[in-house]
Design goal:
The complex is a heterodimer of chains A (115) and B (129).
Chain A (H helix, E strand, L loop, with lengths): L10 H29 L5 H9 L1 H29 L3 H27 L2
Chain B lengths: L22 H18 L1 H13 L1 H12 L1 H28 L6 H26 L1
The chains are: A mainly alpha (115), B mainly alpha (129).
């Protein structure tokens, strides 16, 4: 017997879960960030960069950015799928979005790791 | 044929100016709009983070840019976008878990999202400036 899958490759479900999982992580990070930022004695370069040079905080911040870019990829991709009908234009927009977000990820890594 | 059913003339397209969006619908479209706004402003926000963490000199540039009235206005808008996206996102996660899906609960939670995100924007905005 052939075991047929009546639905597609399930990447819809993967993206759906990925978007929510990244959302939960970003929400938790937002709280951590807010608490740490409020705990700073003053808003100066030393205090601010000191916060981001801590190993754990830098790790979490980088994860935040990766989550953000994946989350944004799913969200913006949904937007193109909803509103842009011509396939060629949509494909082009998908690629531009993807390239931008991958570039931003490199930029975020550079910002966080040169400290 | 004894009876002729009179069909209501249905609109052929969605007349956006005639549709009165219910409160959950407003929260939903604002979630999308705030997401687009945040996405479009990502380069600016990354630029600000980059300047703020570069060195004491670039931190000075960051302070000057952030101090400009137009930048402040833009950042207040983005702060609201983040807060709305955050609060509405938590609401959507709860809806995904089948919490608060009946109409009265969905209406009141969307009102809470709108109010809480505005209050948070004002509180944080005042604290920062």
């Amino acid at each position: 017997m052939v075991n047929r899958q009546p639905v597609g490759a399930h990447y819809g479900l993967k993206d759906w879960i990925g978007q929510r999982a990244t959302a939960v992580f970003m929400a938790i990070y937002t709280i951590i960030f807010a608490v740490c930022a409020l705990a700073l004695p003053e808003f100066s370069y030393e205090a601010w960069s000191g916060l981001f040079s801590g190993g754990v905080f830098r790790f979490l911040s980088f994860l935040f950015f990766l989550s953000l870019f994946y989350h944004a990829w799913v969200g913006v991709r949904d937007l193109w799928m909803d509103y842009v009908k011509p396939t060629s234009v949509r494909l082009a927009l998908h690629l531009v979005t993807l390239f931008l977000l991958v570039g931003y990820a490199g930029w975020a890594a550079q910002i966080l790791w040169r400290l | 044929m004894s009876e002729v059913t009179v069909r209501k003339p249905r609109p052929k397209h969605l007349a956006l100016n005639q549709i009165r969006l219910p409160l959950p619908g407003i929260v939903s479209i604002l979630h999308r709009i705030s997401g687009v706004g945040l996405f479009l402003m990502l380069p600016f926000l990354l630029f600000l983070l980059d300047r703020s963490l570069g060195s004491a000199e670039t931190f000075e540039t960051f302070s000057n840019v952030v101090g400009h009235p137009l930048a402040k206005l833009l950042l207040i808008g983005l702060l609201w976008a983040y807060m709305h996206h955050f609060c509405a996102g938590i609401r959507f996660l709860l809806l995904d878990l089948d919490k608060g899906t009946d109409l009265p609960a969905a209406r009141s939670s969307s009102r809470i999202v709108l109010i809480v995100s505005l209050v948070l924007t004002v509180v944080i905005g005042v604290k920062l400036w």
